[in-house]
């Protein structure tokens, strides 16, 4: 590759990302988009030092006493998204306060010391903006979408709701009923129910096994003191990322961050909260209901966390299995062998492979929706394809999966909203945003032998976790499924 070609590659893939560290005493701006210390990055596993990666030694950010701000420029747009990504979720809870993070997310929009709930709603509506939040097992996110001219107001509102929420007793009681009704709605979404069961059995007796909403008993008893304690413990500068994408001015965002977030507390009264350890247990949960028309089943093995070097090979393996439902065309021409079998044999209504990552662990598996009489066959062919990944996947299949994975990654980043989400998540997971050209290089470095080695490590002869709901009489016994996780046991 000559010098001119290298310049073209940079223009295609490099994106302007700037990170800003901030604390109450000093503001330091630093470029953090394109360089990484090779010795500190676990993602360099099996990757040759290609010249266009420009890997160089950099100073590790002092995350103990600083927050992080990230900005990305997307030209020719009058809109933007800005959000706060907080390193706090249901995994940081215990049995007593499980559900507090999600409850707090609901309370954020119920009024602050500067704005009543009505004032906040009217201000957002008059701006033509959108304000929302969500909670996951490891993160809580508050974000706003608005016109570029309203960036100062959007940032100020986000700062206000996480620093000045009143958490009134009347609002808490009213929101308690809202969350209980939300739980009833979630229970009608069988995919969410199955994945909650999957976490409960895979990570039983650990924090990841708990639901995000929490049990009904906790929702009925969570009080203002619990919410204040959670904010005091987790809403600290080092745990918060402010990310923006779209039509925003870099200098303006930095000034707004200094003004609104410069006084965020960055020290803990006691010890800083840490992720409780979680262990995977091969096991199952079965909830049989023969009145239901379809069976919903998830099977998974333990995978790896975000920063583990085997993450990307498992992403390629996940793409090899793929997904399918009856609305797809293609038939025998589908790239996924399992999809071909499902289509030709009418084995299921749909299936989707998944690779769910957390900080230090993950779940790699498949979710299927089947008629009662096809469960056994669908499970058999699923495990057969898993064993093929471990023993006989070909270079052409891997090349096709790598191209599809890269395409899906690029198609996902189709606007300011998904780009802002990607930046915030990556900054919490990696403390930097991995540029697309680097991700492409890591994907390209994978071959069939890599897939075989990694899949053998995590899938072959491993005890799976299984969650099943519905008419599941034909679901094989756990020991039979376990025996399908190897072909030639030695």
Automatic annotation (TrEMBL):
Known EC number: 3.4.24.64
Chief localization: mitochondrion
Pfam families linked: Peptidase_M16 (PF00675), Peptidase_M16_C (PF05193)
UniProt entry keywords in alphabetical sequence: Hydrolase, Metal-binding, Metalloprotease, Mitochondrion, Protease, Transit peptide, Zinc
Domain Peptidase M16 N-terminal: 77-215
PROSITE patterns cross-referenced by the UniProt entry: INSULINASE
Record's GO cellular component terms: mitochondrial matrix
Keyword Transit peptide annotated: yes
Catalysed reaction equations from the record: Release of N-terminal transit peptides from precursor proteins imported into the mitochondrion, typically with Arg in position P2
Key word Membrane present: no
Record GO terms (molecular function): metal ion binding; metalloendopeptidase activity
Cofactor requirement: Zn(2+)
First-tier enzyme category under EC: hydrolase
Domain Peptidase M16 C-terminal per the UniProt entry, residue ranges: 222-405
Subunit text: Heterodimer of PMPCA (alpha) and PMPCB (beta) subunits, forming the mitochondrial processing protease (MPP) in which PMPCA is involved in substrate recognition and binding and PMPCB is the catalytic subunit.
Family indicated by similarity: Belongs to the peptidase M16 family.
Full protein name: Mitochondrial-processing peptidase subunit beta
UniProt source species: Amphiprion ocellaris
Annotated gene: PMPCB
């Amino acid at each position: 590759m000559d010098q001119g070609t290298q310049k073209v590659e940079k223009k295609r893939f490099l994106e302007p990302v700037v990170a800003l560290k901030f604390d109450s005493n000093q503001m330091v701006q630093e470029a953090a988009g394109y360089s990484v210390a090779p010795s500190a990055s676990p993602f360099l596993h099996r990757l040759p030092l290609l010249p266009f990666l420009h890997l160089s030694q950099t100073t590790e950010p002092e995350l103990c006493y600083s927050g992080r701000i990230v900005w990305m420029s997307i030209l020719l747009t009058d809109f933007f998204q800005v959000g706060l990504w907080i390193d706090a979720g249901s995994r940081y809870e215990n049995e007593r306060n499980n559900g507090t993070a999600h409850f707090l997310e609901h309370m954020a929009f119920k009024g602050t010391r500067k704005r009543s709930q009505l004032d906040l709603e009217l201000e957002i509506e008059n701006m033509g903006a959108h304000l929302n939040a969500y909670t996951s097992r490891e993160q809580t996110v508050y974000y706003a979408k608005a016109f570029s001219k309203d960036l100062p107001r959007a940032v100020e509102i986000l700062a206000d709701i996480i620093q000045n929420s009143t958490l009134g007793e009347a609002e808490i009681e009213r929101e308690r009923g809202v969350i209980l009704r939300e739980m009833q709605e979630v229970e009608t979404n069988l995919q969410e129910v199955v994945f909650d069961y999957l976490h409960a059995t895979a990570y039983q007796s650990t924090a990841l096994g708990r639901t995000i909403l929490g049990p009904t008993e906790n929702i009925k008893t969570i009080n203002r003191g619990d919410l204040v304690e959670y904010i005091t413990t987790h809403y600290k500068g080092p745990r918060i990322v402010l990310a923006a994408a779209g039509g925003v001015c870099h200098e303006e965002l930095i000034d707004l961050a200094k003004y609104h977030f410069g006084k965020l507390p960055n020290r803990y009264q006691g010890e800083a909260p840490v992720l409780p350890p979680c262990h995977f247990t091969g096991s199952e949960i079965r909830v049989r209901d023969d009145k239901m028309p379809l069976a919903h089943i998830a099977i998974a093995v333990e995978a790896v966390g975000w920063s583990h070097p085997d993450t990307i090979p498992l992403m390629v393996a996940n793409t090899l299995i793929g997904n399918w439902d009856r609305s797809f065309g293609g038939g025998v021409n589908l790239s996924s062998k399992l999809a071909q079998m499902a289509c030709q044999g009418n084995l299921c209504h749909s299936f989707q492979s998944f690779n769910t990552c957390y900080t230090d662990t993950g779940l790699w598996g498949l979710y299927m929706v089947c008629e009662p009489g096809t469960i056994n066959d669908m499970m058999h062919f699923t495990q057969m394809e898993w064993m093929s990944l471990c023993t006989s996947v070909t270079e052409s299949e891997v090349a096709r999966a790598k191209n599809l994975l890269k395409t899906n990654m690029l198609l996902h980043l189709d606007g300011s909203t998904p780009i802002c989400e990607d930046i915030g998540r990556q900054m919490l997971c990696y403390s930097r945003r991995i540029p697309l050209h680097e991700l492409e290089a890591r994907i390209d470095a994978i071959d069939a032998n890599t897939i075989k080695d990694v899949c053998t490590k995590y899938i072959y002869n491993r005890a799976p976790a299984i969650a099943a709901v519905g008419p599941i009489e034909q679901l094989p016994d756990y020991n039979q499924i376990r025996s399908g996780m190897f072909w030639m046991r030695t």
